Amino acid sequence: MSNNIEFATEDKLEYCFFPNASGCLQFRVKAPHDAHIALSPEAGEVDPMYEIFIGGWGNTKSIIRKNRTKPDVAEAPTPNILSGDEFRGFWIRWNNGQIGVGREGDFSPFLSWTDSERVNIEYVGVCTGWGSSGNWIIQPAAPGGGSSGGGGACGAQCWVASSGGAVPPSGFAGGEDNGESVYVVRANYNGALIPGKLVPSHGQAYVPWGGAENPVQEYEVLCDFPGQWLANSGGNIPANAVPGGQSEDGEPLYIGRTVHDGCLTIGKIQPSHGVLYIPYGGQELSFSDYEILCS
């Protein structure tokens, strides 16, 4: 991809920072051990700040720590997770103090932690050290968490472009409307990328925005996804929640559903509002208790 960021880091434990407030980082790294990532509100090492060490301690374990202090807040055994001979891919997601770290192509994190403090992450830094240098490929920030046609960032969701009520093969059905399957979709609307529902017999999808149920002819369908729905409420988003888009202000949006008027309806979760919004009966309706789609 032509707009990837590619560079090398020396064996010196000095972070190279770049802006990323998307809540999601997708990258590939070639290093024998000790690939370090910082999540910071500024372009430097400050407090508060998070650090993620992948393949530390001789490429045997990975950790999350806060404010460069011990003890580490989370750790996992990850033997031989890095390689000095080939690139290995990873993703990191963060939202409202919840951090998840996973391998490229995996839906679930191998390392996660929740902080009661909500740190506003604006920059990401990377470095290598402890006898290791590295080569990095940083993919562009993509809060929606995927790309049309498969692959994609931050959990490898596969979003396939479609229109006119058509459902691509392996479309993910997450709801029901009068006995008809309803599918998880997202669509661009008024500067936002919004999760919503596809009712095939209607010949269109719907997204909630501006108090209304908004019909859209062109959309993307979530496909080939072995996810699960978990009971949730308010604006606390699990670390393994599936990012489904972003608001017009750049806030990550997530995929939720609830039963209303006898129908299981899919919509968007906006964490700052603390509710799920569904498109139904011409309106945008809000619910504080709902199910959220997770990997």
UniProtKB/TrEMBL annotation:
Residues 12-139 form the Farnesoic acid O-methyl transferase domain. InterPro entries: DM9_repeat (IPR006616), Methyltransf_FA (IPR022041). Pfam families: DM9, Methyltransf_FA. It comes from the Eukaryota. This is Uncharacterized protein LOC115881830.
